[in-house]
């Protein structure tokens, strides 16, 4: 009788192992980029924590598309799986992976390369270019260096940006539009791509009500001002657009997108990016 029970237990254990193996994430795997640079479309991911991702990683976020690669912290290409950012040890699901998968699905003849450079808590000042390189924002410098590494293997097609939470203050919104304009033109100039598509993300409505130290909800009027900046820049800059953040939710902190909402934002980024590069005849 004990032998039968042992056999049954072993069978159950084997079945469980088989079931879990179906959703077990692959080990991070470095790969060689495709030989044809013109078929390797690169996208720069910049901003702060909602681009880097703070959503909870689930099995769907670890299922790879072998044609979606990401540039890791060592400057090597690997098959993308969340978290693709490494700004914090607790980086999670952001919009990047969903964006990359949808871009790859839109044209199966190409590969997608993601260049994650977002840094949680970063002010727009950390992203400012400058004629005097000593005054250039530290995050901007890193993004330019990583992108120059990436374009040795592929062709840069666009930038997706989500930032503004740190600057949602009376002081922070002053000259924010001028600064973001400089960021966009800086990337286009330094990466020698004057028509580079740049798509920003709105700040979500849930950020307009945030708890203070005593956990009392306080209204933040500056969220709307950041979003108005995006609307204004769309009418000023060519190849600039923004995705809305409607119908999104947070992880419980009134600040960060949950995983579902991050994926929704990724879909919206992909839709606008596809529209832009189709107009340029760069994708089917």
Summarize the SSE layout with pairings.
Elements (H helix, E strand, L loop, with lengths): L1 H20 L18 E8 L1 H4 L15 E4 L5 E3 L16 H11 L4 E6 L21 H13 L4 E8 L13 H15 L6 E5 L7 E3 L5 E3 L2 H15 L3 E4 L15 H21 L5
Parallel strand pairs: 1-4, 1-5, 2-4, 5-6, 6-9
Antiparallel strand pairs: 2-3, 7-8
InterPro entries: Carb_Esterase_6, SASA, SGNH_hydro_sf
Keywords: Hydrolase, Signal
Protein name: Sialate O-acetylesterase
Write out the strand line-up for the largest beta sheet, numbering strands in chain order.
3-2-4-1-5-6-9
Low-confidence stretches: 6-26
Class by helix and strand content? alpha/beta
Say which CATH homologous superfamily is assigned: SGNH hydrolase
Element pattern in H and E:
HEHEEHEHEHEEEHEH
CATH class: Alpha Beta
Pfam family, one: SASA
Organism: Pedobacter cryophilus
Protein name: Sialate O-acetylesterase
Keywords: Hydrolase, Signal
